[in-house]
Design a protein that fits this description.
Its cofactor is pyridoxal 5'-phosphate. Belongs to the pyridoxal phosphate-binding protein YggS/PROSC family. The chain is about 40% helix and about 20% strand. It contains 9 helices and 8 strands.
Length: about 220
Amino acid sequence: MSQIQDEIKRITASLPCGVRLVAVSKYHPESHIEEAYAAGQRVFGESHVQELRRKYDNLPKDIEWHFIGHLQTNKVKYIAPYVAMIHAVDSMKLLLEIDKQGEKSGRVIPCLLQLHVAKEETKFGFTPDECCKLVADGEWKKLAHVRIYGLMCMASNTDDMAQVRSEFHLAYALFKELKTGAFANAPYFKECSWGMSHDYPIAIEEGSTLIRVGSKIFGERVY
């Protein structure tokens, strides 16, 4: 068994019930994905549309492709026919475009609203207040080809794990607030996408249901 397969087995065996691994395969060759696939992994995360399109064409069709990067509205049409989930919806404009392309594809596309809880200014996403306002405005309820499955966030890039935990904690508190409020009658609203290679154990303790792990499985990126 290869190192990639060993790591997939090790991580998945350690996950609590209800938590899934998104193997972040961006910048990694298709051969690496095939190794992970052989170990039973089916959920992979990509963040570049062109790369995802190529991998989708060349790899097994039972792979569940999650788009985890910043998505430009003009690129949605290329992945709408098959993407399993879009993690980083950071504007109403993007949500409207996903709905439009979902209609063209005859699909309802699962999406996560991206929260900006990190200290860095470079991160995309809604502040908690902006997220609450978007949900309260209710325009999303009219979108027949989009379904909001939960929230996504990235923690600050820091070695201070107490800060990382506090950011995940904030995200989960908002998730619970929305789950008991606007999404009380939406059983599909159940996904919390946070935690990466270096902090996913903390993320799981703070409510994560989808951990996005790349370098720990595949090694350093192949550009």
